């Protein structure tokens, strides 16, 4: 039992924090918010050079074979700077799914390119009618003589606009009709019949909705051997929630520090705000919730390779708890900044919006407490 | 990073389990499960203390030269977790976890030789004389006075919320020996024999129906000066040291988990008409379970820091606060789970020696008393408000 960082992990944390502190400031974030790409290709190149894109990729595919703790260290630092590069979409979700489901040829074709920064990915799974139910997929993939024909609609595809290839989930229809199996299909972003409408995502980065109208794909566009991909999707989303939880911890830590500084400087009634017990107690509660969130993000990361039910309960528990803490810390940060907190003149709002996006992504607290309860039911 | 235990730690875990299997009787287990107050009655708690002591485990946190087992933080974690899982009785923490460390840290050789073995063996039963009717959160305003008279102090005043004063043969107390410029100055730490003439004890019944705490009166009570720990006027420093132990020695998550499990078992039982089938109850059980998970991880993080010699700092206040709040959430949930049976509160004590058929199933007997008594968790050992002050000051620097 040891929860201390290894020397390598300490170095990773130092270099990530240094990079974010040096490359991300308010000006950079404002520029990115108004940029049609939403992130900097130069920064992406630096990520590749620093080895961060290769971090979780298996060593036999030119990766570093890192684990969820390493990703969490990176994500927490990203949170502190509101990094908007498509790291989660490409490395955690995209490369994660290919590493888990792909054939050796498919992995060989994609993973080294993700590691060197020449391939960006996205994962299109959510559909409006499914809400947060990962098992509910209406998009169809019909077997044709040449391969596959995909039709349907997807929403909230993280950083889909930046992706060279998009992994789309679809219900497989064979010659008997719907098979009940979900398949994962790799589409080039330029595929005929694929329409994309992208938007600036709440809290930074971008997302898009997709319309697939008879998109024809070759046989080998299907990842793996056609087994139901739902367990892999659940696995990937649980890992992603652990990573996003660590990012939320970084965001919350920055908000706590910023708010603490402000209450020490801002004077009313002839004394700093922080001299008031009601303010001190609020800040103590915020600090406590940041700490609880940190524990839960760590716990989810430590359990990503546990058996599915244990992993899923840890991920849902973390998502629910961190979401609740994030809303509290975010809302109270604005409250304690007073009127200025509600303006775009400070960055408190930008950090808050990223927390709201975190809470919503893959389902909010109510959804995940319910999933946690359902998975915990004894027969 | 690794959550799992190594081979030595797993071997220790087996050792603890087999010790518990050999020594924990069904009677002790039932009595513990049916105790709705914070502490076990002395007959149950001391029987367990004697078993621990016979195995060399009487004082897990003490240095080895005073009879501690020299456990690593991970071993302490395993021990506490296994004890919680098995439902062992609470031992007299006022001796082992409170006055013991103060005597070890600041006591004279004579005091160490006399008192420490008697704490280990369970021969002495201690109570804590800190709070007074006029000094709760503002503890250092305490007024119980000890006036020097030759080789004795003569003590006058009163202490309140004194847990198990009616069972204890000894008390450690903070008393005023001088009026310093600051109210924290002039306080001394004194060990008092409860049989000394002039001491009277008044029982105080809690809202859960238990006699656990008391008010203790001192009328010209003569205590030898040799019973003072450390220097005269330094008692506040020693007392604060002890409070940090009281707050920080907690490995609380395992006990909370067992408490929640008992409630979840009731919720899944026909006794409650399967309360868990209500989505609200199911989600609340999950919410509390997740809060326990978070507390457990924080405890493990502190433990890991301790293993490498780092100081956890003000995190002991976070642990105390969260433990008390989660405990209250567990007991609140319990009341909601048992539904109409919450109306039938059994007034007789002890609950494990009832001589009549209670109105509710045995599994429910402690639920309402635990909820009612449990309101005290956010009050004793420094209220939640005081803990938040400490966090603001120590962690946030405001």
UniProtKB/TrEMBL annotation, chain A:
Keywords: FAD, Flavoprotein, Oxidoreductase
GO molecular function, one term: flavin adenine dinucleotide binding
Domain Acyl-CoA dehydrogenase/oxidase C-terminal: 234-364
All residue ranges annotated as the Acyl-CoA dehydrogenase/oxidase N-terminal domain in the record: 6-117
Domain Acyl-CoA oxidase/dehydrogenase middle: 122-211
Classification via InterPro entries: Acyl-CoA_Oxase/DH_mid-dom, Acyl-CoA_Oxase/DH_mid-dom_sf, AcylCo_DH-like_C, AcylCo_DH/oxidase_C, AcylCoA_DH/ox_N, AcylCoA_DH/ox_N_sf, AcylCoA_DH/oxidase_NM_dom_sf
Cofactors demanded by this protein: FAD
Protein family according to the UniProt entry: Belongs to the acyl-CoA dehydrogenase family.
PANTHER family reported for this sequence: ACYL-COA DEHYDROGENASE, ACYL-COA DEHYDROGENASE FADE28
Official protein name in the record: Acyl-CoA dehydrogenase
Organism: Bradyrhizobium nitroreducens
Automatic annotation (TrEMBL), chain B:
Family statement: Belongs to the acyl-CoA dehydrogenase family.
GO molecular function, one term: flavin adenine dinucleotide binding
Cofactor requirement: FAD
Taxonomic source organism: Bradyrhizobium nitroreducens
Domain named Acyl-CoA oxidase/dehydrogenase middle: residues: 127-221
Classification via InterPro entries: Acyl-CoA_Oxase/DH_mid-dom, Acyl-CoA_Oxase/DH_mid-dom_sf, AcylCo_DH-like_C, AcylCo_DH/oxidase_C, AcylCoA_DH/ox_N, AcylCoA_DH/ox_N_sf, AcylCoA_DH/oxidase_NM_dom_sf, Mycobact_Acyl-CoA_DH
Protein name, per record: Acyl-CoA dehydrogenase
CC annotations in GO: plasma membrane
Domain Acyl-CoA dehydrogenase/oxidase C-terminal: 233-395
Keywords noted in UniProt: FAD, Flavoprotein, Oxidoreductase
Domain of life: Bacteria
Domain Acyl-CoA dehydrogenase/oxidase N-terminal: 7-123
Pfam assignment, any one: Acyl-CoA_dh_M
Gene3D superfamilies: Acyl-CoA dehydrogenase/oxidase, N-terminal domain (1.10.540.10), Butyryl-CoA Dehydrogenase, subunit A, domain 2 (2.40.110.10), Butyryl-CoA Dehydrogenase, subunit A, domain 3 (1.20.140.10)
């Amino acid at each position: 039992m040891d929860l201390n960082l290894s020397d390598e992990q300490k170095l990773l944390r130092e270099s990530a924090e240094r990079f974010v502190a040096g490359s991300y400031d308010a000006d950079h974030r404002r520029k990115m918010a108004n940029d049609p790409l939403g992130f900097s290709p130069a920064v992406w190149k630096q990520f590749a050079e620093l080895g961060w894109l290769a971090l979780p990729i298996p060593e036999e595919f030119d990766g570093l074979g890192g684990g969820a703790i390493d990703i969490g260290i990176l994500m927490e630092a990203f949170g502190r700077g509101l990094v908007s590069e498509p790291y989660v979409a490409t490395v955690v979700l995209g490369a994660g799914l290919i590493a888990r489901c792909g054939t050796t040829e498919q992995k060989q074709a994609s993973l080294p390119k993700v590691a060197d920064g020449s391939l960006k990915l996205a994962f299109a799974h959510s559909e409006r009618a499914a809400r947060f139910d990962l098992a509910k997929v209406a998009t169809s993939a019909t077997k044709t003589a040449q391969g596959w024909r995909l039709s349907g609609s997807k929403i909230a595809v993280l950083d889909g606009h930046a992706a060279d290839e998009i992994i789309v989930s679809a219900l497989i229809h064979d010659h008997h009709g719907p098979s009940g199996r979900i398949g994962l299909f790799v589409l080039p972003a330029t595929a005929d019949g694929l329409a994309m409408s992208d938007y600036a995502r709440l809290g930074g980065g971008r997302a898009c909705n997709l319309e697939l109208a008879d998109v024809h794909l070759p046989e080998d566009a299907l990842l793996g051997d056609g087994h139901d991909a739902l367990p892999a999707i659940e696995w990937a989303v649980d890992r992603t929630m652990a990573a996003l939880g660590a990012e939320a911890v970084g965001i919350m830590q920055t908000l706590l520090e910023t708010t603490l500084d402000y209450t020490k400087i801002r004077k009313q009634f002839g004394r700093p705000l922080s001299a008031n017990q009601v303010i001190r107690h609020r800040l103590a509660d915020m600090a406590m919730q940041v700490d609880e969130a940190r524990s839960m993000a760590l716990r989810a990361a430590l359990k990503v390779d546990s058996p599915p039910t244990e992993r899923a309960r840890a991920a849902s528990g973390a998502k629910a708890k961190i979401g609740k803490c994030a809303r509290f810390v975010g809302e109270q940060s604005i409250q304690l900044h007073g009127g200025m907190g509600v303006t775009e003149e400070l960055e408190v709002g930008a950090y808050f919006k990223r927390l709201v996006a975190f809470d919503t992504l893959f389902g909010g607290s109510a959804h995940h407490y319910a999933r946690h309860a359902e998975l915990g039911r004894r027969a | 990073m690794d959550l799992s235990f190594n081979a030595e730690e797993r071997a220790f875990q087996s050792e603890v389990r087999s010790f518990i299997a050999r020594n924990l009787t069904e009677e002790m287990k039932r009595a513990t499960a049916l105790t709705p107050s914070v502490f076990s009655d002395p007959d149950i708690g001391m029987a367990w203390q004697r078993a621990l002591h016979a195995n060399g485990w009487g004082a897990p946190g003490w240095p080895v030269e005073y009879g501690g087992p020299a456990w690593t933080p991970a071993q302490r974690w395993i021990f506490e977790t296994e004890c919680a899982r098995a439902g062992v009785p609470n031992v007299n923490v006022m001796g082992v976890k409170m006055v013991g460390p103060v005597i070890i840290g600041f006591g004279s050789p004579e005091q160490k030789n006399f008192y420490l073995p008697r704490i280990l063996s369970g021969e002495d039963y201690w109570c804590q004389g800190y709070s007074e009717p006029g000094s709760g959160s503002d503890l250092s305003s305490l007024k119980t006075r000890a006036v020097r008279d030759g080789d004795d102090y003569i003590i006058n005043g009163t202490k309140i919320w004194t847990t198990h004063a009616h069972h204890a043969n000894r008390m450690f107390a903070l008393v005023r020996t001088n009026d310093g410029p600051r109210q924290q100055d002039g306080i001394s730490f004194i060990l008092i024999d409860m049989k000394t003439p002039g001491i009277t004890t008044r029982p105080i019944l809690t809202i859960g129906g238990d006699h656990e705490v008391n008010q203790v009166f001192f009328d010209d009570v003569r205590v030898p000066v040799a019973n003072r720990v450390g220097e005269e006027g330094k008692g506040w420093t020693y007392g604060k040291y002890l409070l940090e132990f009281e707050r920080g020695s907690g490995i609380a998550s395992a006990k909370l988990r067992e408490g929640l499990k008992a409630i979840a078992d009731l919720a899944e039982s026909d006794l409650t008409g399967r309360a868990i089938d209500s989505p609200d109850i199911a989600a609340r059980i999950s919410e509390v379970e997740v809060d326990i998970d978070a507390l457990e991880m924080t405890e493990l993080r502190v433990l890991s820091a301790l293993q490498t010699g780092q100081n956890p700092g003000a995190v002991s206040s976070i642990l105390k606060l969260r433990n008390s709040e989660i405990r209250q959430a567990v007991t609140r949930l319990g009341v909601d789970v048992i539904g109409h049976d919450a109306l039938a509160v059994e007034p007789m004590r002890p609950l494990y020696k009832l001589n009549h058929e209670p109105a509710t199933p045995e599994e429910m007997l402690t639920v309402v008393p635990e909820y009612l008594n449990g309101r005290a968790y956010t009050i004793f050992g420094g209220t939640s408000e005081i803990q938040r002050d400490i966090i603001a000051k120590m962690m946030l620097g405001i």
